[in-house]
Amino acid sequence: MRPTRPRVTRRGLLRRAAALAAFGPLFQATKPASAAQTAALNKNSAPSKLRITDMRACRIASNYDYPIIKIYTNQDVYGLGEVRDAGVEGLALVLKPHLVGRNPLDIEPNLDRIRKFANHRRTGGGYSAVDMALHDIAGKVYGVPAWRLIGSKYRDRIRIYCDTDESKDPKIYAERMRKRKDKGFTFFKMDIGPRLIEHIPGALIDGVATEKGLKIFCEFIQAVRDAIGWDQPLAADHFGPLDLNASIRYARAFEPYNLAWAEDMIQIGHLGQGGDAPLNWRAYKTLCDSTVTPIATGESLFGLEEGFKAFIDNQAIDVIHPDPLTSGAIRETKRIADYAVMHGVRTAIHFAGSPVGCMACVHTIATFKEFLAMENHAVDIPWWDDLVNGVPKPIVNKGYIQVPDTVGLGIELNDEVVKQHLRVPGYFEPTPEFDKFIIDDFRRGGPYPHLDEHGNLVTDW
Ligand SMILES: [Mg+2]
Fold first, then answer.
1. Are residues 105 and 129 in the same domain?
2. What is the per-residue pLDDT across 136-179, written as a single tens digit (0 to 9) for each?
3. Is the peptide bond before 394 cis (omega within 30 degrees of 0)?
4. d(CA 185, CA 179)
5. Strand pairing partners for 79?
């Protein structure tokens, strides 16, 4: 027999509320709101009636272009999001008709609707921008930081590493890295690319280092190690057009230097120019199995199932390195990192956008069980911090970013500064050209000829 549940009647509830109200200030929340209180009520407190009304954009010209979007609602609350650096805002705007009229708080159903339009490299950027804006809205509506919507906070600050301009002189390169350490950074990455040795006869064949070239690369790493210390994590990137065999040669040569990881080594035979969106997990598995240098990749992969799962399931990677502005932003990157840690794979974060996307990453990373470091590509751009208000400045402070406890993403755009750095004219102008469906999966355009249940041909819905 099914156990009977105690019946809860409306009258019973009212009686309990009255009893609680009798306790006075202890249960202020149960008192009926006065007219003054009602007037001061946050309009966002009608979440069930919240609807998406519009999506608009602007594009900031910086070290890369930063396409920024705003999702508007019928209750004056809006959300900010960012498409992947060097992408375009249209990747998000084409999703507008799939979202308008829907409740932005239905984060997962909304994302489910647009997932089929997301892919690797920049084409993951539209989905990712929408994810950020939905979490910004939901955080504001519920009065919680975005990280609270996806998990618990495992850390109060996020460790940052930054890129550093290379030099053909190992001493100058090492000195630049030492200056990063002086600024408080505790995680480092250097580029070990063909440009460093292209002027040296016999060092390269078609962009790939010979044994002579590899020895010179090692002198660069040695110089940087001597400058920052052997006790500091040091990663490496941008090796040039390597195939699997060349990658193995490089990774083995670098083993004495205890790299934190070697990034995106295999550049041949993969998705798109540059090879930073690898789909060939088998080649990466062979590389991982051939060296003790930790291997990282993933900055241009979208999604757990679409991009990262095969690498993790097959132990084909030591460190995943998603860029949340491609990988699916807050909710999806959390899924990816949780799946990785469950399988003993570590997570670092690639990032090269504006403070909007940066703070979305910070909220996401705050919830990771384990984490190495997050990239910042803009520590040398003097006005980068000024693009937003609401967070402590400098945003990257002594090598770390503070995790906000303010609502949503915790930032607002500084309109004046953003307007000074627009790539294309227009600042969140109306976007009627995106009102109709431009991309879609299955949709009847209107009445269509078909047989009804009696076998008669009709033109109807
Ligand atoms: Mg990289």
1. yes
2. 999 999 999 999 999 999 999 999 999 888 899 999 999 999 99
3. yes
4. 9
5. 71
Candidates 331, 333, 268; CA nearest to 299 is 333
Q: How far is the CA of 322 from the centre of ligand 1 (A)?
A: 10
CA of 394 to the centre of ligand 1 (A): 24
User: Is residue 319 classed as helix, strand or coil in its secondary structure?
Assistant: strand
Cα(237) to ligand 1 centroid in Å equals 6
CA distance 267 to 206: 13
User: Does the global pTM surpass 0.85?
Assistant: yes
Strands (E), 188-228: 188-191, 204-205, 208-209
Same domain, 240 and 354: yes
The pLDDT tens digits for 393-414 are 999 999 999 999 999 999 999 9
Helix, strand, or coil here: 406? Answer: coil
- Residue whose pair of structure tokens reads 């002189």 in the numeric block: 169
Q: Are residues 76 and 184 in the same domain?
A: no
In a domain, 36, yes or no: no
Task: Tell me the pairing of strands 346-347 and 374-376.
Answer: unpaired
Question: What is the enclosing helix (H) or strand (E) of 362?
Answer: helix 355-366
- Give the three-class secondary structure for 432: helix
What CATH number has the domain bearing residue 140?
3.30.390.10
Distance from Cα 374 to the centre of ligand 1, integer Å: 12
Q: 429-448 as b/e, with b when 16 or more CB fall inside 10 Å?
A: eebeebeeeeeeeeeeeeee
What is residue 161's DSSP assignment? E
- Rounded to the nearest angstrom, the distance between the alpha carbon of 276 and the centre of ligand 1 is 7
Distances (CA, A) of 174 to 88, 222, 224, 398, 414: 36, 9, 4, 19, 36
Spatial distance between the Cα atoms of 428 and 165, rounded to a whole number of angstroms = 34
The count of domains in the chain is: 2
Spacing, Cα 215 to ligand 1 middle (Å): 22
- Amino acid identity at 106: D
